[in-house]
Amino acid sequence: MILCAHTHGDSLNENDVIKNKKIGKERDSNFELLRIFAIFMIIVSHFCYHGGVLENVVSEKITTNLIITQILYFQNWTISVFIMITGYFMIKSKANYKKIINLIIEMFFYSIVFMGIFYGLNIVKFDIKRCISNIFPIFWSGNWFVKYYIILYLLIPYLNIFIEKLSKEQLQKVIVLFLIIFSIISTITHNAWNFTWHNIFILDYIIGAYIRLYPIKKLENNKINIISLLLITILSLVFSVTCMLLSKILDVSILFKIPGALINSFSSPVPILIAFFIFHLFKNIKIKSKLINYIASSTLGIYLVHDNSFIRDWIWKTLVPNANFLGLNTLLYILFMLAKVAIVFLVSVAVDKIRIILLQKLEDKLSNKIYNILLNFKNFIKRKVYNKITL
User: Fold this and answer.
1) Category of 214 on φ-ψ map: left (φ > 0), alpha (ψ -120 to 50) or beta
2) CA 371 – CA 383 distance, rounded (Å)
3) Is residue 227 predicted with pLDDT exceeding 60?
4) What are phi and psi of 288, to 5 degrees?
5) At 147, is the pLDDT very low, low, confident or very high (cuts 50, 70, 90)?
6) Per residue in 333-375, pLDDT tens?
């Protein structure tokens, strides 16, 4: 969910887009459109899960709307898409650690602001532990994706060295090996090997880098990408619906969760394959749009706003509870879902644009100061400690 950006740049903020335009660079709108589509589908998955519908599925009566909700929750491919975009562009770029500082500042800003609003207006009861975790979001209450992405970004220079040292064939073998170990075996054994998103992020990054270094000519034809996506989607849907219907017929609720474990688990190869073909599908689209680029520059903001720990429960469970609409006619339920997701998307964009207008310059100045302090500290350590050790 970063809602990562690429080098024209790989930045996460609108301010960098303005700088890039000044030097004649412009983001590719096809990848920006992919980021918008991916973050929209992430909001759909959050509607399905955080709305309280799927959290207690054992006690729910299995209905058509519940099955639809479970199917639409299967959106882990979006995470792989974002990391593949990062790998695709960063393999030809140098990591800029100022971006990590900017990311943390933005994360900290939303954490503090929303906590202040919700506690200040007494929307939620004050909780000292929750308060402390929001003051230090990078350690506790911060969005999990941001933490994993920061770690990945710090590893980019070393991952690039590793990737560039390998031949095409060796890189293919690494991808296959990682796919078997981190994805296939992990999924079959239901994460018994206990791998985490770090492993999948590295795998996705390498796949994105491979696509950039060794373009796959067959996949430049979008017919192949569309057919592949349809086959994977149909097979996944058939398997999922079969398990869900059996859970309803046999009244065995555990069957309802099997598709999630095998198809949508973080380690499953299915989301990775879907992301792989969707990435190529959008890669082949030729489009230039200032509006698309403008909206996509707030992808991170959209994520941090709508998935803030205070906002999350409020929009999905309190303001207009999703679970209250589960009994609607199926068409009305889908329309309600799309309308609410669209509203959350647009409001999140608006909130982030307001932040950019009011605070972007201040955030950039703060980021530069922090970066210079860290750089001076690094040089001090290198001069006083590292050089003495290596003598």
Assistant:
1) beta
2) 18
3) yes
4) -125, 125
5) confident
6) 999 999 999 999 999 999 999 999 999 999 999 999 998 888 8
With residues binned 3-state (H G I as helix, E B as strand, rest as coil), the percentages for the chain, rounded to 5, are: 75, 0, 25
Q: Which two tokens stand for residue 59?
A: 């006690």
Dihedral of alpha carbons 36, 39, 43, 44, sign? positive
- Say which residues have a Cβ less than 8 Å from residue 286's Cβ, sequence separation at least 6: 30
Distance of CA 361 to CAs 14, 105, 132, 267, 368, Å? 11, 12, 27, 39, 11
pLDDT digit string, tens, across residues 274-284: 999 999 999 99
* SS3 category, 6: strand
Residue written as token pair 């009861």? 125
DSSP classification of residue 9: B
The runs of H, that is alpha helices, within 284-328 are: 290-296, 299-306, 309-313
Stretch 3-7: mean pLDDT, rounded? Answer: 48
Please tell me whether residue 212 adopts helix, strand or coil conformation.
helix
Q: What DSSP state is assigned to residue 324?
A: G
Beta bridge partners of 7: 9, 10
